[in-house]
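Hi R.,

Here's the chain you asked about this morning:
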Amino acid sequence: MIKVYNTMERKKVPFIPQTESRVSMYVCGPTTYNYIHIGNARPIVVFDAIRKYLQYKGFDVTYVQNYTDIDDKIIRKAREEKTDPLELAGRYIEEYSKDAAALGVEPANIHPKVSENIPEIVEMIQTLIEKGHAYERNGDVYFRVRSFREYGKLSGRDLDELKSGARVQVDELKEDPLDFALWKKAKPEEPSWESPWGQGRPGWHIECSAMSMKFMGPTFDIHGGGYDLVFPHHENEIAQSECYTGQTFANYWLHNGFITVNEEKMSKSLGNFFLVREVLETFSGAVVRFFLLSTHYRSPLDFSDTKLAEDERALSKLQNTWEHLLEATPTRGAVGAPSLEDAARAARLHIEEAMDDDFNTALAVGALFDFAREINSGLARGLTEEELEAAKQVLQDFGVDILGVLTEKAAPAGDDALTADLMELIIEIRTKVREDKNWSLADLIRDRLKEKGVHLEDTKEGTRWKVQ
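And the predicted structure, written out as C-alpha cells:
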C-alpha cells in the first residue's frame, strides 16, 4: 500500500483514491513571466515522477497543471518590455515547455490557462457572494476569511494571531485586513474581462480553485506544489473552494521542500536563483533530474555546481551499466553463480517499498545503484537471456520510465557521427594491433586517447569507448 505524507494531517497516511484504480491530481504550475529557475523545476520533476509511479502501480492518472497567464508580475514584465501581457505569457509558456521536456517531464493531461477559464471563475465568485462568503467594493471582490471557520487548518495558523503585514495586504475597502481579492478592478492598459462587477481580472487564489474543480470535480485526490504555497495560496484555495461546494476540496496535500543556495532559500526576490536553461548549458537534463530526485522530495536540497558535478559522475556509472546491459549478448550463464533474476526481483521489491513510502526517490535511486553493481558482476561472468531481460526491465521501469535518469544511447549526428566513425576505426586498428600481440602500441593508443578524455574499456563483447 502506498503511504503519503499529507500536509493537512501532518503525518503519513495510507493513500486511498476516491475511485478505485483512478487518481486525480492537480499541481500548481508556473506564473509565466520568465524562464523557470531550478527551484521551480523541483515540483515539476517531483510530481512528474509521482505521476509516473502511480501509473506504474496501475492507476489511471488525470494530471492537471495550470499556467498562470494573468498576474501582477506578468503585467509588470510586459510593461517593461512594451508588449501585450498575454503575448508575453504565451511566449514563456512555450519556453517552459522546452525546459520541462529537457528535464524528461511528460506534459500534463490538461494544462489550463487562466485566460481561457474566466467564465468559470466569475461564476464561482458570484456563488461565493450569494452565499455570504464574499463581497464587492467599488469593482473589487474580496473573500470574507472569517466566514470559513476552518481557515488555517492546512497551515496551522490561527486567525486571531495573523497580523496585517508582510503577506497580508492592508486595504481600507476590506472589511477585514485578512480578506483576500477574488476579483480586481481593471486598471488602464491591463488585460481585463467583463463581469457583474465591471471590467477586471481574477485574483491569484481563485484561479486554481476554479480550474481544478472544472476538470476534476468538487473533490479530487491529490493537490501538490511547493511548500511555500501552503500559506496563503493553498490555505485560501481550501477556504474559497469548500465554501463554494460545501465539500472537501482535496483529500491529500503533498508539498516539496525548498531548494537552497548556501542554505538560503532560492528565489527571484533574493537574486540567488539559477535558470534551468543556464544550468542545462553545463549539465544534461538527466543529471539535473537526478540531482532533484536524489533527495526525498520533502527535504531541503542545497544547490551547487559541485553537487551537480558529483551527481554527473555518479549517474555516468549507472548509465554505463545500462548501456552495457543493452549491448550484452546472452550466454549460458556461470555455473553456481547467484541468479540475476533473483537480484532483479529483490531490487524491484526494494524500489517499490521506497516509492510506496511517500515516494522516497532517494532510497529508490540507492537501490538502483545497488542493483547496478550486481548487474556489473553478472556481465563480467556472463548472463542468460532471462537474466538479461529481467535486469533490463528493472532499469527500464525505474531508471528510464519513472525516475527518468537513464536514457538509451542516442544515435550520433553531424560532427558527433564523424567522431563515432573515427573512434570505431581507431578501435578496429587497436584490435588488430592486439591480435598481433603488439601490446605496447595498443597501450599507447589507449593512453593517448585517455589524455584526450576518451576512455576505452575492453570487454568480452569488444572494446567500448566513452568521453569522460
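The chain has 14 helices and 15 strands.

Let me know if you need anything else.
M.
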